[in-house]
Amino acid sequence: MSPLFVIFFTVFIDMVGFGIVIPVLPLYAEHFHATPLQIGWLTGIYSGMQIIFTPLLGRLSDRVGRRPVLIVSLAGTALGFLVMGWASSLSLLFLARIIDGATGGNISTAQAYIADVSTPENRSRSMGLIGAAFGLGFTFGPMIGGILSRISYGAPFYFAAALAALNVLLLYFILPESLSKEYRSRPHERTRLGEVFQHGHARLFGTIVVTYFFTITGFAIMTTLFALFTEKRFGYDARQTGYLFGFIGIISVILQGGLIGRLVKIFGETALARTGLLFLALAMVLLPLVHTLVMLLLVCGAIAIANGLVNPTLNGLASQMIDRSWQGRALGLMQAAGSVGRLVGPLLGGWLLMFDLGFPVARYARTPLFTSAAILLVAFLLALGFRKPSTDKVPPVAPARATV
């Protein structure tokens, strides 16, 4: 079995678990008499823990290798879902979310693995595998959660725990290590995460990290409010909104799983990132103005395409800015910035939505979605400062066990 397939499956499991939580967790928490504020914290604490632990896992993977970090983190994910399914109180739900958030920050390690086994010119295409796994997981996760919740609130989480446990076995028996010992950081080295900027193109890498933060923040505002928007504007229930998420996910899978490599060869990562950010901002402007299903599908399609262009190219560019032995820490910092965005975006979106209450339905969610567009426009302006780095500071990637 290809190591890249195992990495793909690892990210897919993470996103299925993330998607399962979306329709089930609020109702599960209400079962334990949680207040809306407690539900908000229960949702946000996952990203809060990832802000802390994602860079640490990335740093650890630079020291001991990618494989052991992936195995331990997936085992933690399985444990978190098992506790969530077994929970008999709200406090146990919080414990489960803390475990899952702390150990679930393995996306950066998966990205570092792909960077290890990919040549620089193919890196964005390889990062597209991560995007495809995101799309598939986000497509099937909410549907699985909705279907299995008919059995019990815990059933979807038991299912997710079983998938994570299966993934641990695949990692242990099949996945080879991608980071050779000569590229690992020494155990006695006590480095600060900020030192990652000293091992490559610091200014360019910093610009990409900030751009990624604004991108995720703007996008998280939309994903948080999308179900409420479709309910108010079109009268859709969770099942119908799930179909829309499935539509977006399928387009993302097609783009990031197969087309992104060809597009990078033709246009380059920088041009694709800029184009995706600009179209994503325009889509956020148009979304609160739609009034028909056809218009909604067109805007959703534009969102899927734009987001599919942005994520793999930003991560691919970031990986090219930093020395190989610092890939885990660099991509961990990227994902930490994304986690901050996924924490800030929902909080900001919920607060801004209050300004639209009491107005006609036609104005519902305009304030947060227009703000989302403005934030994404900032990301686009930052992307105008991107440029292809020279190869004199960052050494070429050495041959690995597998190439893409």
Key phrases:
single chain; 404 residues; mainly alpha; Growth Hormone, Chain: A; 13 helices
Please tell me about this protein's structure.
With 404 residues, the protein is mainly α. The chain has one domain (3-173, 199-383): Up-down Bundle (Growth Hormone, Chain: A). Helix content is 75%, strand content 0%. The protein contains 13 helices and no strands. The two termini are 14 Å apart. 54% of the residues are buried.
Structural class: mainly alpha
Principal-axes geometry comes out as globular
Give the number of DSSP strands. 0
State mean pLDDT (0 to 100 scale).
Answer: 80
Which architecture would the CATH scheme give at its second level?
Up-down Bundle
How many domains? The number is 1
Give Rg in angstroms.
20 Å
Order of helices and strands: HHHHHHHHHHHHH
Describe the main β-sheet briefly: none
Number of helices, counting only DSSP H or I runs of 4 residues or more: 13
Broad CATH class: Mainly Alpha
Assess the beta-strand content as a share of residues. Answer: under 5%
Short structural summary:
The chain is mainly alpha-helical and 404 residues long. Helix content is 75%, strand content 0%. It is built from 13 helices and no strands.
